[in-house]
Amino acid sequence: MATGKGDRGVRGQDRLPSIIGTTEGAFLNVRVAPGASRSKIVGVFGDALKVAVRAPPEKGRANKELVRVLARAFGARRGDVEVRFGQASRDKTVVFAGWPAEDLRQAITAELAPASE
After folding, report:
1. Nearest partner of 93 among 43, 26, 35, 15, judged by Cα
2. Rg, C-alpha atoms of the chain
3. Which of 2, 8, 25, 87 is the most buried (most CB within 10 A)?
């Protein structure tokens, strides 16, 4: 397997973003690419889940779109997903309130799995 920058944006089950479980819920590191042509989960970027969002990075629009994309992709309620740190940064920490870390890990693994042919 190659190393370096080419490995940072990998889509697949072999790499997962950093997930920390607490009594509050599961915390996930996210790297956001605002202003994309469509909103979607791109893959893993370093220790973060990379998510592209259509919304521009102004007035919290990209954060709202990020919450919507993550909630839909992982079957969470929007109210349970919150950008906790990094509101004005591409690098964010998102909390899934009430979620065990293992449940979030499984949801991410399923989302990143290659489509069956």
Report:
1. 26
2. 14
3. 25
Q: Say which amino acid occupies 83.
A: V
Q: Which of 29, 32, 26, 28 is nearest to 99 (CA)?
A: 26
- Whether 90 maps to a domain, the answer reads yes
DSSP string, 18-55: -EEE-SSEEEEEEEEETT-SS-EEEEEETTEEEEE-SS
Is residue 110 in some structural domain?
no
- The domain tally of the chain equals 1
- Given a contact cutoff of 8 angstroms between Cβ atoms, the answer to whether 86 and 92 are in contact is yes
How much is the pTM? Answer: 0.86
Domain range holding 15? 8-105
